[in-house]
Structure formats: C-alpha cells, structure tokens
C-alpha cells in the first residue's frame, strides 16, 4: 500500500526552521572541523550571541491582573452578569486564536531583555575586542566587516584607536554602511583606513574594479556582484590575497599591493 504524507507549512515558518537548522549545523562544523571554541558572553551570563543585531533574550511577559470593573456590582442581575462573562470569554478565545494563528511560534507574550554590555552591534564589537581580541597572543589580526559591521568597526576604532592600530594588520569591508563624517572619525583614523582598509562594494563591474567614493576613507572596489548579501562570498579570493599581502608587507615594512594600485582613489582632506 502506498502512502502519501503532506506537510502544509507556511513559508515564513519553514524559512525560520531551516535557518535554525543550518545555523546549528554550521556552528557544529566550526567547532569540530575548524577547532573553534564557542564562548558565552558576557562571562557568566549564559548567552551566546550569534547575531549582534539581536543582542537580547526573550522572556515571558508577566501577566497583569485586571480588576473587575465597578459596573460589575453585586446588585446587577445574575442573568446579565452571565451574558457579559460569556461574551468576555468568547472575545478572549477569538483573540487568543487569532494571535496563535498570526504567529504560531509565539503562544505567549514575550518581552526583550538586552544583554549586558552587548545591547547593540557597536557595544558588542567593543566588548569582544576588550575581552578576547586585545588579550589574544595573535600578532596579526584581520577583520572582515560586512554591511553594518563596517560601522561597528569604525566605532571600535574611535573608542580604541591606539589599540586597534597596534594590533590590526588589515581590514576588509564588504558593502560597508559606515560613514566617517556622521560617525565623526578623526583625521588620524581616516588616514589609517586609507592605508589598511579596502571596501568591496556591490557593483556590476568585474571584481576589484575601482569604484568612486565621496568619502575620504578607504579605497572602494567592486565585489563582482550587485547583490549586497553576496559581496563577502564573491570577494573572498581578493580579500585573502589582500590579507596575505598585508601580512607580508608588515614583515617587510611595506604597504599591501592593493593600496599601491594605480587605480586607487586619492582623497583630499576637506
């Protein structure tokens, strides 16, 4: 006898489920195959931050006890009170059903508690720097900062400029949304970024083609794709070459080849 089993799962719920399964699998690979260590932060907090944009945990919201209205007086006819109670229960039942249907994964009302010292991507970057990177024995530290991660890195430089300059060898930005003017990055930071950073941006031009910029910070080159979410993956070959050249240049007291290319954009201090 043949059997057919059909699952009817909303795309949104299926997408969330797949994301959780894939994320769990990737992190297992990072631990087993790459020998990386998973650490909970902040220390003793028991929370692992996977996405700095969601640095919070959800807890059930305490239920508020609503007192009965003064209109529900004892002198009200019993039949009328029963009708009101019945209507109230039916209304609550329909509301609860609607909430469950609208979001079946959240049957309870939740509130967000932001994680101590990691309540934003910027705070998270500084915390990781202070508690892990600054204390590491690594002589060459490299950053790959995608999208808002570029803004978080610039903020890290503003707060830990001397430490970053002494420890970081090179920074690869991929379609970064940082803005040195709005973030009020100083002249010395902008000069360091011009020499040690490169931003691979979304563009239909071939990989590493120079892209003009209005900001006086790091060179901008094409990531070889016009899709924002693919800029890191598409530019990895150039990024690792950039890191290799930066490491060799640091040893020989030279600058990475990428910063010496003839198509590099020159910026004048405004």
From TrEMBL:
Residues 77-90 have a biased composition (Basic and acidic residues). GO terms for molecular function: siRNA binding. InterPro entries: AB_hydrolase_fold, Arb2, Arb2_dom. SUPFAM superfamilies: alpha/beta-Hydrolases. Residues 62-99 are annotated as: Disordered. GO terms for biological process: regulatory ncRNA-mediated heterochromatin formation. Residues 41-207 form the Arb2 domain. One of its GO terms (cellular component) is nucleus. This is ARB2 cotranscriptional regulator A. It comes from Sciurus vulgaris (Eurasian red squirrel).
């Amino acid at each position: 006898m043949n059997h057919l089993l059909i699952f009817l799962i909303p795309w949104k719920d299926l997408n969330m489920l797949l994301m959780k399964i894939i994320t769990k699998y990737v992190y297992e690979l990072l631990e087993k195959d790459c020998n990386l260590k998973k650490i909970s932060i902040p220390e003793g907090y028991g929370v692992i931050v996977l996405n700095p944009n969601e640095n919070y945990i959800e807890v059930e919201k305490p239920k508020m006890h609503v007192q009965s209205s003064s209109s529900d007086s004892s002198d009200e006819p019993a039949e009328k009170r029963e009708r009101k109670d019945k209507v109230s229960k039916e209304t609550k039942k329909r509301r609860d059903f609607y909430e469950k249907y609208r979001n079946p994964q959240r049957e309870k009302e939740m509130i967000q508690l932001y994680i101590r010292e990691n309540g934003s991507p910027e705070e998270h970057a500084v915390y990781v720097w202070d508690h892990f990177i600054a204390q590491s024995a690594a002589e060459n530290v490299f950053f790959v900062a995608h999208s808002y991660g570029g803004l978080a890195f610039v903020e890290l430089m503003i707060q830990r400029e001397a430490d970053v300059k002494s420890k970081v060898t090179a920074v690869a930005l991929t379609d970064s949304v940082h803005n040195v003017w709005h973030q009020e990055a100083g002249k010395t930071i902008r000069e360091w970024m011009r020499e040690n950073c490169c931003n691979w941006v979304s563009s239909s031009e071939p990989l590493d083609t120079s892209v003009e910029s209005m900001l006086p910070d790091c060179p901008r080159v094409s990531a070889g794709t016009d899709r924002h979410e693919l800029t890191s993956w598409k530019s990895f070959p150039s990024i690792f070459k950039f890191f290799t050249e930066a490491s060799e240049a640091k040893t020989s007291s030279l600058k990475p080849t990428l910063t010496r290319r003839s198509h590099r954009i020159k910026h004048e201090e405004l």
